[in-house]
């Protein structure tokens, strides 16, 4: 039985769903807890998604947490949510607890996660506690934070599962004290989107696919792409612009008005991964899921990494892949139609061949099975 804890961020929830589905295919009973805002997602029948009282951060700084009504949370709210989380844990009584990102991030959720980890360590049934993290982390700059992470790993965790390819990036690239926890670290490879979300026949073939998040920067990327088309060598192709649901309807209509002919402006689609495989070129940000979709395709790509609030995770990921000739990095500060057109031309000259481990889902499930087997033998 597997118990997966998810806290914030739609992208992280998608990756957790992919992992949970693979675990379920290995005959585990899987419950996935989401603590972020409810989203319209395709939930595998084999995975039970449980929703905690939702919480979110209004910006990338994560200095404030708001409840589902947009109000600042208080100690009473924290206490109620902690009790709900512990009740879920006790009712399910899992063999394995997997926390997504924590303790390498989500520090503001310590009020519920430390009690959860304590409950796991005092549980007779829960014999494995695993930290699930993406390929590259946002490096810590505040004194003592890296030491604190190592202490939590030492105290509560049996394994740290890095969902990336060690040949592309190692944990030490973004976590300064990786050597201190090296014996607990394993690399699964990238976790890819499942192949069952197929686009309709013929849709998306040979077009330019543009996507971005729902931030102000994401909207600017979409506008810049529209302005870059006449300057691009791909100006005669059909361009599909996918708009985040976080961008409001008035801005969506404004994009439609400035685009004109040769564009299709629509909301995000669940068949994005398949559309990307069919595209002639992709323009996007450099989040984990999107980059994994790029790596799982032969499509040339231009990426504009998210760089607000001192975030460098996406830039680090994009730089490593640009160094290997797989994509072209266009810095957010250089975002302009002419610069995007030049980046498109450069991406079209690159080889899309790059040997990379994309079996992160099944590899993760296999490792969890092996860790449980070893624990059973030791007991």
CATH superfamily of the largest domain: Glycogen Phosphorylase B
Helix content: 25-40%
- Count of helical regions: 11
Our estimate of the beta-strand percent is 15-25%
Q: Tell me about the largest β-sheet.
A: 7 strands, parallel
Q: State the strand order across the main sheet.
A: 3-2-1-6-7-8-9
Q: What name is given to the CATH topology of the largest domain?
A: Rossmann fold
Q: What's the total number of strands?
A: 15
Q: How far is the first residue's CA from the last residue's CA?
A: 18 Å
Sequence-ordered SSE layout with sheet pairings:
Blueprint: E1 2-6, H1 10-25, E2 30-34, E3 47-51, E4 55-56, E5 66-67, H2 75-92, E6 96-100, H3 110-121, E7 128-134, H4 145-156, E8 159-163, E9 185-187, E10 208-211, H5 216-228, E11 239-243, H6 249-259, E12 263-267, H7 272-278, E13 281-284, H8 288-295, E14 301-303, H9 313-323, E15 328-329, H10 337-348, H11 360-378
Parallel strand pairs: 1-2, 1-6, 2-3, 6-7, 7-8, 8-9, 10-11, 10-13, 11-12, 13-14, 14-15
Antiparallel strand pairs: 4-5
Helix pairs in contact: 1-11, 2-3, 5-6, 5-10
What would you note in describing this structure?
- With about 375 residues, the protein is of the alpha/beta class.
- The chain has 2 domains: about 1-190 and about 360-379, Glycogen Phosphorylase B (Rossmann fold, 3-Layer(aba) Sandwich); about 210-350, 3-Layer(aba) Sandwich (Rossmann fold).
- Helices cover about 35% and strands about 15% of the residues.
- It has 11 helices and 15 strands.
- The protein has helices at about 10-25, 75-90, 110-120, 145-155, 215-230, 250-260, 270-280, 290-295, 315-325, 335-350, 360-379, and strands at about 1-5, 30-35, 45-50, 55, 65, 95-100, 130-135, 160-165, 185, 210, 240-245, 265, 280-285, 300-305, 330.
- The strands form 3 sheets. A 7-stranded parallel sheet has the order 3-2-1-6-7-8-9.
- α1 crosses α11 (about 360-379).
- The two termini are about 20 Å apart.
- Residues about 5-10 have low confidence and may be disordered.
């Amino acid at each position: 039985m597997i118990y997966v804890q998810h806290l914030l961020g739609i992208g992280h929830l998608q990756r957790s769903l992919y992992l949970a589905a693979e675990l379920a295919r290995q005959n585990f009973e899987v419950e996935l807890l989401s603590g972020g805002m409810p989203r319209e997602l395709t939930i595998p029948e084999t995975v039970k998604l449980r929703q905690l009282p939702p919480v979110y951060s209004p910006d990338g700084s994560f200095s404030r947490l708001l409840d589902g009504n947009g109000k600042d949370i208080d100690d009473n709210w924290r206490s109620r949510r902690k009790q709900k989380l512990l009740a879920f844990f006790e009712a399910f009584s899992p063999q394995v607890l997997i926390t997504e990102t924590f303790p390498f991030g989500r520090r503001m959720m310590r009020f519920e996660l430390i009690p959860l980890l304590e409950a796991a360590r005092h549980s007779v049934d829960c014999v494995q506690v695993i930290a699930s993290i993406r390929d590259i982390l946002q490096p810590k700059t505040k004194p003592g934070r890296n030491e604190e992470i190592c202490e939590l790993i030492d105290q509560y965790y049996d394994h740290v599962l890095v969902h990336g390819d060690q040949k592309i990036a190692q944990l030490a690239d973004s976590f300064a004290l990786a050597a201190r926890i090296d014996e607990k670290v394993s690399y699964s490879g990238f976790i890819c989107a499942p192949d069952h979300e197929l686009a309709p026949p013929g849709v998306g073939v040979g077009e330019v696919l543009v996507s971005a998040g729902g931030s102000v920067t994401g909207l600017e990327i979409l506008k810049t792409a529209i302005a870059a088309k006449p300057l691009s060598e791909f100006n005669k192709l059909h361009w599909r612009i996918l708009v985040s649901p976080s961008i409001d309807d008035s801005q969506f209509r404004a994009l439609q008005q400035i685009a004109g002919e040769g564009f299709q402006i629509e909301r995000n689609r669940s068949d994005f991964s398949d559309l990307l495989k069919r595209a002639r070129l992709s323009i996007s940000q450099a989040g984990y899921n999107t980059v994994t979709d790029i790596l799982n395709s032969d499509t040339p790509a231009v990426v504009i990494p998210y760089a607000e609030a001192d975030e460098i995770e996406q830039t680090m990921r994009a730089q490593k892949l640009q160094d290997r000739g797989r994509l072209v990095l266009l810095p957010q500060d250089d975002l302009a139609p002419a610069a995007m057109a030049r980046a498109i031309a450069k991406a079209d000259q690159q080889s899309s061949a790059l040997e990379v481990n994309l079996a992160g889902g099944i590899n993760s499930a296999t490792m969890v099975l092996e860790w449980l087997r070893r624990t059973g033998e030791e007991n």
